[in-house]
Design goal:
4-stranded antiparallel β-sheet, about 35% helix, about 375 residues, alpha/beta, about 15% strand, single chain
Length: about 375
């Protein structure tokens, strides 16, 4: 008899069963010499609020118990999700997925409390760190985002500039996300850029609050990174608009997805896309920080770029040993066809075939 699987991508049925499996496997991987880093989506959740499935259904209340996530931060996941301008929930469909895709709002304190509860549970399970995925959402049209947008614009626009853009210096009386239709294209472009910069800083602030301030209060050695994206040679990525001091601050390594190689390939012309130059570009952006970096390329539709460093010198030596094995086992988990390049004095290519002396134990634990 077919049984619905409430959690997409999970190996077992039910929240408790998967947590029990994680509690069993994590110590085995750590005993074999690797660090275990969990992926946590900072925005996406899946379901259908009209059909009451996903987090909109009865699963929501079952999550918030003393032995799972603790006190419920809000009565319904809708109270933490992004909104449209008319106040309705914002959602989209992704081809091939059975449910709608909703997103938590990074300005909404309810959503950040949800993420903190999940971080707390992950630390209790024994995770060594978190990789924040889907960390690319912009401001929505909820009251929290509108208040943030107005505050951000007030700090950066003079009264005269507000009048030039919105026709008034009182931003409480206007829509901070839109200018009058008669506005010049240059003015619209400036507002778009300001809001994009504000969204980037809000993303960074929410990451810091959830993972650096809260997570490392629970576990000071927590390994942290964001799963970001750098496709082709376009200049924009999730943190490209941040001021330099905030770029990667507090993170232990950089992780970039470089997208399907077919986007930059033209086989008919004999050109196969090489993601090495964008990788070097990202590496150059990390200059001035204690670091060393490695590009990992695997033969699959997606190419992941991993650049690692320790930002805390007193733990650099210990972290180097731990994270080397952590990176290697993550790559092995993704694909057995793995090549790694280390940019150092020798600038040599090498085939990455081991993650330390305990590769067999690590691999066996992961396969478990």
């Amino acid at each position: 008899r077919a049984t619905a699987r409430p959690w997409a991508g999970m190996p077992l049925f039910g929240i408790e069963a998967n947590l029990e499996l994680a509690a069993e496997v994590i110590p085995q991987i750590q005993a074999a010499g690797a660090a275990v880093v969990g992926q946590l989506s900072t925005t996406m959740h899946f379901g259908d609020h009209e059909q009451q499935v996903g987090l909109f259904g009865p699963t929501w209340e079952s999550m918030w118990t003393d032995d799972l996530l603790g006190p419920m931060p809000c009565r319904d996941i809708a109270d933490a999700s992004q909104r449209q301008a008319d106040g309705s929930l914002s959602w989209r469909t992704i081809s091939g997925r059975p449910y709608r895709t909703y997103r938590g709002c990074m300005c909404n304190p309810n959503w950040r409390e949800i993420l903190k509860a999940m971080v707390r549970k992950g630390v209790a399970l024994g995770l060594d760190g978190f990789n924040a995925t889907h960390h690319y959402e912009s401001l929505c049209r909820c009251t929290y985002c509108e208040a943030y947008a107005r505050s951000y614009l007030r700090e950066r626009l003079s009264d005269d500039e507000c009048v030039q853009l919105f026709g008034t210096e009182d931003l409480d009386t206007v829509d901070p996300f839109a200018l009058p239709e008669t506005s010049a294209q240059e003015a619209k472009g400036r507002l778009e850029q300001l809001l994009a910069q504000g969204a980037a800083q809000r993303r960074k602030a929410s990451f810091d609050e959830v993972f650096i301030e809260f997570g490392r209060q629970l576990k000071p050695s927590l390994l942290l990174a964001q799963w970001n994206h750098k496709y082709d040679f376009r200049p924009h990525d999730e943190r490209s608009l941040l001021p330099s001091p905030q770029w990667g601050a507090g993170e232990d390594y950089l992780w970039y997805s470089q997208g399907p190689h077919k986007w930059g390939s033209d086989l008919a012309q004999g050109y196969l896309a090489d993601m090495g130059l964008p990788s070097r570009f990202i590496g150059a952006g990390a200059f001035g920080l204690p670091k060393r970096w490695r590009t990992t390329v695997r033969r699959s539709p997606f190419t992941q770029v991993l650049l690692g460093w320790s930002r805390r010198n007193e733990t650099a030596s210990r972290r180097r040993t731990t994270t080397d094995r952590s990176y290697a086992i993550n790559a092995l988990w993704q694909s057995t066809n793995l090549f790694s390049t280390r940019l150092g004095p020798t600038r040599s290519w090498r085939l990455c075939t081991r993650a330390g002396p305990n590769l067999r134990q690590i691999w066996a634990a992961c396969m478990r």
